[in-house]
Amino acid sequence: RCRGLLARYWNDTVGLPAVTINRFYQPSVHDHEYLQRTQCCLRDIKVPVSDVCQRANASISCYNQHYGHLQANAREFVPFTELQHEQILQECIDLLQIPPSILAGYVKHGIANYPEAQCLLRCFMLREGLYTDAGGPDLHRMSVQCEGNYSEGQIREKASRCIGDLQGQCLDKCELAYRIAEECVNGDIAVIVVFAGVSTKVTTKLNVSPSLNVNVNGPSFG
């Protein structure tokens, strides 16, 4: 359980490992039923959710027995915590000297309406190691951080095509980073959702009025 909490794949409330635990295992190329066996094993666990340690141990045993080879010494990306998100966002705010009114503005009216917010998002992704200007988004890391499926099959191919199309346009670095996050790797859980949530938390503490831009018809975070 302790290892799962530190590696961000275990949640006591849910009582099951997050899908991102798969980064620690290597299934056999000849085994086409490893996922089904693992899921069946997890469903058969009788330990109550309240017994967090035994529940975690039983769940990890399912992966050890059925999912694939445990890569115990593999160096893997560890997702950031909410506190770390806030610290990184604040560092970017200070670095880019973003006024509080702009923060409140893009939280209310949307990033698309604020070039400063697009640069802030780019800084946030760069500092979290989720994105580079040269290579674009790290789909594997984004998958781990956001519990998404960006590194799998058709979703990865679709995202890669979208990224390539945007990189071929004459966009500045901030707009490119924003549009990739918004158009190519967005979904139910995505990096832009993480950014929006942290931005809302930071802005709530400021209690300032938003700065209005010309176009305020975009989606808000509130």
UniProtKB/TrEMBL annotation:
One of its GO terms (cellular component) is extracellular space. The keyword Ion transport does not apply. InterPro entries: PBP/GOBP, PBP_GOBP_sf. Keywords: Disulfide bond, Secreted, Signal. Its main location: secreted. One of its GO terms (molecular function) is odorant binding. It is found in: Secreted. One of its GO terms (biological process) is sensory perception of smell. It comes from the Eukaryota. Belongs to the PBP/GOBP family. This is General odorant-binding protein 45. It comes from Culex pipiens.
